[in-house]
């Protein structure tokens, strides 16, 4: 299938055009220049044309950046790789600003690639943008079109220019996912600058996501498919989650919303922590949010290559984590160095383990045998001279495992006793590394007090 790359300067409307062609608001759109930092892929269509689309970071340079560990170089590399990967280029210009030296440099990159290119002069809603259209003709590309991504004007012109370059989608039957080997969706979250993008780049073995020494490089929640040990995974890189008081603008707010949505739709969440820093209240907030969403949680402590006494550090870290997160103290803690690719395989083993627990189904008979034993060992309390009676238990759903307790007086069962049951249940059935849910339901019986 044809792969199309959207390239151009920051804030010319590439992400707006991307969202329009894929038919969803996948990319964050805002007036802030340079919002997109990574390549985003999507399934796009234009009338009866189907193709793959790449949204790229804005390229504002007029020469190749020389400092390879800089953000400018990472953004340049992301755009350059998209140009090399694509079959067709959509070169997006700002009709209200006109052609700039950065546009001229981008045009040179496209010409060197020898890829077919359509120049899209965006924001061409008014007559005053005609000069920009004529100015863009000097680049020498075959097609130069007026366009408005925001209002959807010019789609007909784009179709006519693009149709001869777009391969027809092959008629193949859509393959259903193997239920015995499902794709596990893994979201990577944490505070800014803890190494989330570096970690995922090292896992997949390519510089797929932009990294840099600056905090907050990642803005969008982006995904990539990867296979390890013949098992498929979908990794989602997310923006760093800041404290509410530190969210300075709408862009950071939108990034936070994207990250929380990624957690909601993930199955396993890797909470990446910086081993060179102490555990923060924000880490606790993120962990609680993941557990409340019912997702599997794995703590990934990064940057252990900077730790001198690892044995002392790891034991103290585990102790501190269990004190700070008592309700999730059994969840896995993996110590890694993303930079040196150390212990990355342990992440996959932990993901497989918690995913299996998260999907478990326990039949009613062993559940009630367990309930009979724990209630006999530690009976529910007596409230107003009447003992709270738990009649039976059954599992009502998976992902996460959720159990219903049928009780004569649900409102009278103390939270502490419910915690006792949940902890005992997790221990008895090997579910200590995932969040469990117990819900109370009243056992209807008109003859009971």
Looking at this protein, list some descriptive labels.
single chain, 449 residues, alpha/beta, six-stranded mixed sheet, 12 helices
Task: Walk me through what this model shows.
The protein is α/β, with parallel strands linked by helices and 449 residues long. Helices cover 33% and strands 22% of the residues. It has 12 helices and 17 strands. It has a 6-stranded mixed beta sheet with strand order 2-3-1-4-5-6, with helices on both faces. The N and C termini lie far apart (69 Å).
Mean pLDDT: 83
Structural class: alpha/beta
Describe the global form.
Answer: elongated
User: Within the largest sheet, what's the order of strands?
Assistant: 2-3-1-4-5-6
Q: Tell me the total number of β-strands.
A: 17
Q: Total helix count?
A: 12
Query: How much of the sequence is in beta strands?
Result: 15-25%
Helix content: 25-40%
Radius of gyration: 27 Å
Chart the SSEs and their pairings:
Blueprint: E1 3-8, H1 14-22, E2 40-46, E3 49-55, H2 71-85, E4 88-94, H3 101-113, E5 117-122, H4 130-136, E6 143-146, H5 155-162, E7 184-190, H6 196-204, E8 222-228, E9 231-237, H7 250-265, E10 268-274, H8 281-292, E11 296-302, H9 310-324, E12 333-335, H10 344-358, H11 364-377, E13 382-383, E14 386-387, E15 390-397, E16 402-407, H12 415-428, E17 437-442
Parallel strand pairs: 1-3, 1-4, 4-5, 5-6, 7-9, 7-10, 10-11, 11-12, 16-17
Antiparallel strand pairs: 2-3, 8-9, 13-14, 15-16
